Amino acid sequence: MHNAATIAHDHEQHHHHDGDSTDVFGFWLYILTDCILFGCLFATFIVLNDPSMHGPALKSYLDLHDILIETFLLLVSNLTFCLAILSIYKSKLFRAQLWLVLTFILGASFVYMEVTEFAHIAHEGFSWATSGQASSFFTLVGTHGLHVSFGLLWILVMIVQLPILKITHITKRRMTYLGLFWNFLDIVWIFVFTIVYLMGGI
Amino acid sequence: MHHHDLSQPDYGTGQKKLGIYVFGFITCSILTLISFWAVMSETFAKNDILIIIFISAIIQFIVQVVCFLRLNTQTEQGRMNVMSLLFTGVILVAVIAGSLWIMWNLAYFMAH
């Protein structure tokens, strides 16, 4: 009897595990389609920002110091999220929440800096409607910013639901989704700051 | 499947270890600083800067994928994740390189 119960339990866990793995693979495929979306936006940006193009150059409106700070905000938030995942796996719920709150603050500062920068350069005369270069810049960087904003909303939902649902395989799976999403955004940012800001700033 | 701890499913995203995260974070920080320094110090030629920032970006990409996304080929699911990433890479090369090729050709023939 005891053995049967154990086997049933093992089977149950195994079943959960396989189902979860398929779900996470599905989410990973979503992330990859998002990569293709960003790839198209990067292609548009590079084509429209050929040095021979006319119109105001992005370079004169940018302050690379701000971009460096934004980069580190995102990079540190990436680390704090990983620390939250570690706390979840050590069943330390409160500590996980603290790391998530810190991740949220860092991500929110990033979005705040980006929006301020957008408003500033639009006010200076490099706005969405100025040229094809400007449109592709705002679309590419704005799409990334929008993704980060959705990620922030998701982190808030996670902070609220963790104490309600406790640490189960469901919350672990949801943290895995969120982790993939958040790390993916930092990876996209590597290419945004290299191609948009650094190449534009040379 | 046997050497797989069922109480800690990894979903093909590898084991969670603090050391790996910290290593990834420090490596990416250093590379980011090198990239920004190369552009902001204005001591290098334009082509050298391009080479530096692109090599730095590619290494950062690999470090993030290995250390943060924890992609690996240890499990069946890990291999599926890596294969789908490689396939996406093929599509991205087709989209980006293809667009640039077509547009530069177009610009060339309109100018000549």
Concise description?
By secondary structure, chain A is mainly alpha-helical.
What fraction strand of chain B? Answer: under 5%
Overall structural class of chain B, as computed from helix and strand content, comes to mainly alpha
Overall number of strands of chain B: 0
The helix content of chain B is: over 70%
Overall spatial form of chain A: elongated
Number of helices of chain A: 5
Mean pLDDT of chain A: 89
Helix/strand/pairing category of chain A: mainly alpha
Radius of gyration of chain A: 21 Å
Strand content of chain A: under 5%
CATH-defined architecture of chain A? Up-down Bundle
Task: Report the CATH C-level class of chain A.
Answer: Mainly Alpha
**Which chains share the greatest interface?**
A-B, 54 and 46 residues
List the main descriptive attributes of the protein structure presented here.
heterodimer, A: 202 residues, mainly alpha, Four Helix Bundle (Hemerythrin (Met), subunit A), elongated, B: 112 residues, 3 helices, 72% helix, flat
